[in-house]
Design brief:
Chain A: It comes from Belnapia mucosa. Chain A: This is (2Fe-2S)-binding protein. Chain A: Keywords: Iron, Metal-binding, Oxidoreductase. Chain A: InterPro entries: 2Fe-2S-bd, 2Fe-2S-bd_dom_sf, 2Fe-2S_ferredoxin-like_sf, 2Fe-2S_ferredoxin-type, 2Fe2S_fd_BS, Aldehyde_Oxdr_Iron-Sulfur, Beta-grasp_dom_sf. Chain A: Pfam families: Fer2, Fer2_2. The complex is a heterodimer of chains A (156) and B (342). With 156 residues, chain A is α+β, with helices and mostly antiparallel strands. Chain A contains 5 helices and 5 strands; from the N terminus they run E-E-H-E-E-E-H-H-H-H. Chain A folds into 2 domains: 75 residues, Beta-grasp domain (Ubiquitin-like (UB roll)); 69 residues, DNA polymerase, domain 1 (Orthogonal Bundle), CATH 1.10.150. Chain A is 35% helix and 15% strand. Chain A has a 5-stranded mixed beta sheet with strand order 2-1-5-3-4, covered by helices on one side. The longest helix of chain A has 16 residues. Chain A is globular, with a radius of gyration of 15 Å. The termini of chain A are far apart. Chain B has 342 residues and is α+β, with helices and mostly antiparallel strands. Helix content of chain B is 27%, strand content 19%. A 5-stranded antiparallel beta sheet of chain B has the order 4-5-8-6-7. Chain B has a 4-stranded antiparallel beta sheet with strand order 9-10-11-12, with helices on both faces. Chains A and B meet through strand 4, helix 3 and helix 4 of A and helix 2 and helix 7 of B. Bound molecules: flavin-adenine dinucleotide, iron/sulfur cluster and FE2/S2 (inorganic) cluster (2 copies).
């Protein structure tokens, strides 16, 4: 099947098997390997991307069904040599990871979490970030990073 | 995953017509999986990936949000479009204010990513999380392959049901929201493939396992759920959903309770009670409600109600703790609801 995917502002035309998930299309076909495959069964959040600004799981999205949307992956947050997104900066500054495998999913999920208005307290951040598992258990620092970035994202 | 035919339906009539093309011959429709509607895909694609579902065709119905994605309230009650997303219903101001149990059942389910994708219609139709059902390398599962037996009876079953089970299947209905629809006496609006509409009580949508556990619901092949109607009542504002899980967040219920109360001076005029996490299908406990009516709501009447709710419980070894967990969950939910400020 021919599909047209709009990823990080660029249109890509490609032929895929109908079974191809958005996750596999991004990683295997478009070589955007920042989006990670953890469980491939909707349980870990590593494959989180934004579809029209909304956080979703790319392992449960068929590529053919993602054609209308603007897709944002971790690669799309800051261009090469451009400043990092405040959430990326906050993850660096708070040291909110160890191995980094869950981090792209955490960052996209966290950006949406702030934009949804679900980052008003540490408890609320923990609840609304619970779909992103971290095998290294960097959870306390992830909460701190979301709190730091929220201030910058929302301005004074 | 096996290949499938994929079609995107532009509207309701198109979706019904596409499904009708794939109907299996009479008598075999429930065994030969017919075409499946693809809504959020969070249960269907899951089951396809793990080799449990292999529909020959998928009909993407997300465009039907236009027709069936609205959430509306009026004096007679609440109407939830089947294509509305879980996240939308969970945060809808009228749902939060007038039907808090519904909002809570959705907020406490899955994760925000899943709630952004999943629809209310798909949610109520999600299938059991029984480990043996979800792993085709196990031979014995009457729900997956009729007549093969049940590996869970003497196996890992601490998540499975104690109410409504049969000797052929003890699978639990895993969802949260559907238990609230059952308890509040909701109705489901359904379109059949020729476009005719029917309405049934939500309690009649799902089937008990009995001797045919492979048939989850009374939907006929090709039928499309378009909405849920929840009747208004003086009990809906004083309502809550209490969910007990192994993990504090992002987990299915081990036990849950829906409570909605109409109280006058602490005495129960009317009550609605539902249970989850340990039931074979979305559950309303008429017995628990009857035990409360006309009584002062206190520890003793709450306990009597919980005892009535679990009268018929049947356990299988590992899940023997569940009736007591369920009773305590219901008692706590009743006392919390009584203490709510409305
Ligand atoms: C990790 C994880 C954790 C979860 N935790 C919870 C939880 O705690 N609580 C909870 O309740 N749920 C939980 N879920 C389940 C989740 O809520 C469901 O997968 C989701 O609600 C299904 O909705 P969907 O729109 O994605 O359905 P789909 O997967 O698209 O569809 C499911 C089924 O319903 C059919 N269908 C869909 N819409 C219609 C319609 N309008 N008419 C007729 N048939 C239709 C489809 O054909 C399919 O057979 C969890 C899921 C995952 C993966
Ligand atoms: S409990 Fe039901 S779903 Fe689980 S193995 Fe037994 S028959 Fe299958
Ligand atoms: S890879 Fe998608 S949720 Fe784990
Ligand atoms: S940093 Fe290793 S999994 Fe999260």
């Amino acid at each position: 099947m021919d599909v047209l995917l709009k990823v990080n502002g660029t249109e890509h035309r490609l032929a895929v098997d109908v079974r191809t998930t958005l996750l596999d299309a991004l990683r295997e076909r478009l070589e955007l390997t920042g989006t990670k495959k953890g469980c491939d069964l909707g349980q870990c959040g590593a494959c989180t991307v934004l579809l029209d600004g909304m956080r979703v799981l790319s392992c449960f999205t068929l590529a053919v069904a993602a054609q209308e949307a603007e897709i944002t992956t971790i690669e799309g947050l800051a261009g090469e040599n451009k400043p990092l997104h405040p959430m990326q900066k906050a993850f660096l500054e708070q040291d909110a990871y160890q191995c980094g495998y869950c981090t792209p999913g955490q960052i996209l999920s966290a950006i949406a979490c702030v934009q949804e208005g679900h980052a008003n307290s540490a408890d609320q951040i923990r609840e609304y970030m619970s779909g992103n598992l971290c095998r290294c258990a960097a959870y306390p620092k992830i909460v701190a990073a979301v709190q730091q970035a929220k201030l910058l994202m929302e301005g004074p | 995953m096996r290949p499938f035919d994929y079609q995107q339906a532009q509207g309701t009539a198109a979706a019904l017509a596409l499904a009708a093309q794939h109907l299996a011959p009479p008598g075999e429709e429930r065994i030969l999986a017919p075409a499946q509607y693809l809504a959020g895909g969070t249960n269907l694609l899951d089951l396809m990936k793990i080799g449990v579902a292999h529909p020959p065709a998928l009909i993407n119905i997300t465009a039907l949000r236009q027709d069936h994605g609205r959430i509306e309230t009026d004096a007679s009650g609440l109407r939830l479009g089947a294509l509305a997303r879980m996240a939308e219903a969970a945060e809808h101001p009228a749902v939060l204010r007038d039907y808090p149990a519904i909002a809570q059942s959705l907020q406490l389910a899955a994760s925000q990513q899943l709630r952004n994708m999943a629809t209310l219609g798909g949610n109520v139709l999600q299938r059991t999380r029984c480990n043996y059902f979800r792993d085709p390398s196990w031979q014995a599962c009457n729900k997956r392959v009729p007549g093969t037996g049940c590996a869970a009876m003497a196996g890992v079953n601490r998540r499975l049901a104690v109410l409504g089970v049969s000797e052929h299947c003890i699978a639990h209905y895993p969802g949260d929201f559907a238990n609230v629809l059952a308890a509040l006496g909701a109705e489901v609006e359904i379109l059949s493939s020729d476009g005719t509409a029917r309405r049934i009580a939500f309690e009649e949508l799902h089937r008990l396992p009995g001797d045919a556990p492979h048939i989850d619901t009374n939907l006929r092949p090709g039928e499309l759920i378009i909405s849920f109607r929840v009747p208004a009542g003086p009990w809906t504002r004083r309502s809550l959903y209490l969910k007990i899980r192994d993990r504090e967040s992002y987990d299915f219920a081990q036990a849950s309770a829906v409570v909605a109360l109409d109280l006058q001076d602490g005495v129960v005029r009317e009550a609605r009670v539902g249970l989850g996490g340990l039931v074979a299908k979305p559950w309303r406990s008429h017995e628990a409600e009857a035990a409360l009516r006309g009584r002062k709501l206190d520890q003793a009447s709450a306990q009597a109600s919980a005892d009535a709710a679990f009268q018929g419980a049947v356990t299988h070894g590992e899940n023997a703790f569940k009736p007591e967990l369920g009773r305590r969950t219901l008692v706590r939910a009743l006392l919390q609801a009584a203490a709510m400020e409305t």
